[in-house]
Amino acid sequence: MAGENLLNAAGIAKQGSDTIFSWWARYQDAKAAGRPAVNGTIGALLEDDGNLAINKVVDAAVRAAPEIEISAYAPLAGLPSFLDLSKTLAFGESRIRLEELGFNLASTASPGGSGALYLAANNFLNRGQVALLRDRHWGPYKGFLQNNGIDFETWPLLPPGGNDEHPFFADEEFQTKLGELCSKQDKIMVWLNDPAHNPTGLSMGSEGRSACLNSFVNSALNNENVGHTLLIDSAYSLYADEPHAWADTILEAIEDGLLWPENLLICVAISLSKSHTIYGLRTGAIVSLHPEKSVTDRLNTVMSVTGRQTWSAAPRVAQYCVSEMHSTEEGGAAWGKERDRLKKLLDDRRANLKSECEKLEVPLNPTMDGFFAWIEADDPVAVAEACAKNDVFLVPLNGGVRIGLCALSSGDMGKVAEALSIALG
User: Please, where are the H alpha helices in 138-277?
Assistant: First the structure.
């Protein structure tokens, strides 16, 4: 193999191109050839005319940034004003009540939500241990984990036999996996992208979140020598009907008497890429919740040092601009109005796709929020290839095909449903 005498074992194992970007390139080639191609590949929000959707309020704030805020380093942990904002972005209105109840929050800025995931992968499990994911998940999770010497196992996205109490969370299988890992490891880490799951658009609902939290807390209580970290990947949550659903679920459980063991930590990975449409400015944070201040203080140190040793400091300009914008009621409201407009684009597209798929009896998976919809498939590549023959470009992933509502226009949904119907027929 080329470079084998230069690369280490980890480097040699890296091969292939990103599935999402390779299918996006195929769409671009088809479009350039003059074909009537539609784009359901890329995970960025586009206007109906195909241009990148940009929150104009955020754009104006960035363009008005002082020179020093563009050019200077940020503090290693992040600008204090941004770290404060990140806690509110993670926990919403529940933040104040959680702090009143004695809970403490740690936050470290990162290069996007991906940086937050890296910080978690690098610090919460030992090399050789196993993280727990749902069987339908964002593909790059694997790379973040494996680059830190961590493997992963999965539990089903949906209850295999259905569940009337929580139809969108496979609790029994989750508990089984937790028990298996607790018998083998001294630390457990779960990554859960909810609400507005990538790649399906599924949201677990209050019943699913409550069941998940209770099972995780009970596992921590029953395995007091095993550290338990639940990381909520909130990349798309601010486009959900319940943007701070997990914060609300956690607060409600605590107020109802939830016992919070010392070996339990909840983290939220936030990303400004989607919520503030500044993908290229690479700004996010990992926010952690724990009742002991000594724990959150230690996390602030650990994450800051990890960032310094990996990427130095996260970019400054978006930290400054977004925290300044949200520092006034008028700025926050203006951002929210634009965010609501973009959310409506997604809501309308999802409703149209559901309607068109229902007409043609295309078995779309449950999809409620965010950028994507999903269809299960035994041979996802074959389905995506069949759709491509009809100039509909989607992304084949493990177990199914991702439909990028974010990139499609509302008028494309009939064509998408028809292509899927033919591909599945």
Answer: 141-146, 171-182, 205-222, 245-255, 272-275
